[in-house]
Write a structure and sequence with these properties.
The chain is of the alpha/beta class. The chain has 17 helices and 22 strands. Bound molecules: adenosine-5'-diphosphate.
Length: 503
């Protein structure tokens, strides 16, 4: 990485990257060479007021984020005076409403996982609005996205609708909320990668959409101003750092990871393997509409250009390993799955389809249920564990294949991050099942790095994306060794097992 900084020559300069996630708030100091210099992390409480409902306390989101910033600065007090920009990556879709004048939240945040608006989404679907929302926002009518969450709050918090119509209430995703805090209430903004997850933002006109707002009965005045993902948005209030620091990068966490993985050109894709998986593929400067169950989203807007992505979420990937460990006691720790899978040459024809909560992209089948097929009297624990790991790779292929069919761009490499990428068996199997290489990021902090890069470019620390992505940041790739005939036969067996899980 080269730095264009002409600042204090004898001191490193830093970007403070905030990674506000679903289960924790984190802060990282990234130096001008793109290295992680310090990190702070605080857990965030999960609130489940009813089955299927998930909430966070917005004040706690901010306090934990601020505490993790302080942890970071305690580790490197000398860095505090040399932070040149702040970047914010955040859990997406999570919805917060607060009072314009006092900044007080009017309700807990409704988290992206919360299903409380399932009936509302079904009504919109029944009224025939699905295609309109899909065309304008690239999204499907699902409780996941912010729009119906905002509407729910307006309908259920006493007096709130009238106050919102009078201009007293602001809506924001977590990025907006953090910027609002850091600027002492001076700024109410978001970036297009976050706005594109709300069901209210038109990804073609790049503006809040009046027709959709009317259908959802959401006053336009509640919506934040949309600013670039990279560029100086404003300055922090002096009280936080003793001086003003530019906020210069904002992105949803998955888009930040796409950027952090260097997927900056059309046809580049990444998968994050956590509890579930998020696959995103950069499709360039024109949105691609999916006919294979994927959503279209804005990747980022920077340097005068907007880039789009196709996205597919897989519900259960790392979760299947947790299930083997916690429910079946087949392994003691997640890592053991690798050695056990290697004790057998194959699964002996066993497939495991982990449709515990239905299947996400590209199937979107909430009725599907998990199953294990092809067992014989000779089937062992090792076969089942191996089949579980293989299922993670097959599901990833399902999504990537759908992406390629939608955008007709050949993929020649998949970039990967997340907890389960430590499993080398899984990574090799992934390459074999795809037929092209898999590259694992050397630094696992792809989300924080991604938004730090956006912030660093935004405040002039780095000149451009090419500046940043020049260096060698990946382990040696996992290269496929399996022949095409075997690959096709194994994958056909997977598709057959999926058909049964959906029957
Ligand atoms: P999240 O952000 O969703 O909590 P992480 O990125 O921390 O997820 O990854 C944790 C997930 O990865 C868990 O579901 C765990 O089962 C899985 N995992 C962790 N290590 C391994 C491993 N060595 N092999 C397979 N799966 C693993």
């Amino acid at each position: 990485m080269t730095s264009s900084s002409k600042g204090v020559a004898n001191h490193l300069q830093y970007i403070l990257a905030l990674d506000q996630g679903t289960t924790s708030s984190r802060a990282l100091l990234i130096d001008q060479w793109g290295r992680v210099a310090a990190m702070g992390q605080r857990d965030l409480s999960q609130r489940y007021p009813q089955p299927g409902w998930v909430e966070h306390d917005p004040e706690e989101i901010w306090f934990t984020e601020w505490a993790s910033i302080q942890d970071c600065l305690r580790q490197m007090p000398e860095a505090a005076d040399h932070i040149v920009g702040i970047g914010i990556a955040n859990q997406r879709e999570t919805t917060i409403l607060w009072e314009r004048t006092t900044g007080k939240p009017v309700h807990h945040a409704i988290v992206w996982q919360c299903r409380r608006t399932a009936a509302a989404c079904q009504s919109l679907q029944d009224a025939g609005y699905g295609p309109l929302f899909f065309e304008k926002t690239g999204l499907v009518l699902d409780p996941y996205f912010s729009g119906t969450k905002v509407a729910w709050l307006l309908d259920h918090v006493p007096g709130l609708r009238a106050r919102a119509e009078a201009g007293e209430i602001l809506f924001g995703t977590v990025d907006s909320w953090l910027v609002y805090q850091l600027t002492g209430g001076a700024l109410h903004v978001t970036d297009p990668s976050n706005a594109s997850r709300t069901l209210m933002y038109n990804i073609h006109t790049m503006d809040w959409d009046d027709q959709l707002l009317e259908i959802l009965r959401i006053p336009r005045g509640m919506c934040p101003k949309v600013v670039d993902s990279s560029g100086i948005v404003g300055l922090t209030e002096r009280r936080w750092f003793g001086r003003e620091i530019p906020i210069s990068g904002i992105a949803g966490d998955q888009q930040a990871a796409l950027f952090g993985q260097g997927c900056i050109s059309p046809g580049m894709a990444k998968n994050t393997y956590g509890t579930g998986s998020f696959v995103l593929m950069n499709v360039g400067e024109r949105p691609v509409s999916s006919s294979h169950g994927l959503i279209t989203t804005i990747a980022w807007s920077m340097e005068g250009r907007t880039q789009y992505a196709l996205e597919g979420s897989i519900f259960s990937t790392g979760a299947v390993v947790q299930w083997l460990r916690d429910e079946l006691n087949m392994i003691g720790r997640a890592e053991e799955s690798e050695a056990l899978a290697r004790t057998v040459p194959d699964t002996g024809g066993v497939y495991l389809v982990p449709a515990f909560v239905g299947l996400g992209a590209p199937y979107w089948d909430s009725e599907a249920r998990a199953l294990i097929t092809g067992m014989t009297r000779g089937t062992t624990r090792a076969h089942i564990v191996r089949a579980a790991l293989e299922s993670i790779a097959y599901q990833t292929r399902d999504v990537l294949q759908a992406m390629q069919e939608d955008c007709r761009m050949p993929l020649d490499v998949l970039r990967v991050d997340g907890g389960a990428t430590r499993n080398a068996f899984l990574m090799q199997w992934q390459a074999d099942v795809l037929g092209y290489p898999v590259e694992r990021a050397r630094n696992p902090e792809t989300t924080a790095l991604g938004v730090a890069f956006m912030a660093g470019i935004g405040c002039g620390l780095w000149q451009s994306v090419t500046d940043i992505h020049a260096g060698e940041r990946f382990d040696p790739p996992f290269v496929p060794t399996m022949g095409a005939t075997q690959r096709d036969a194994l994958y056909a067996g997977w598709k057959d097992a999926v058909r049964r899980a959906r029957a």
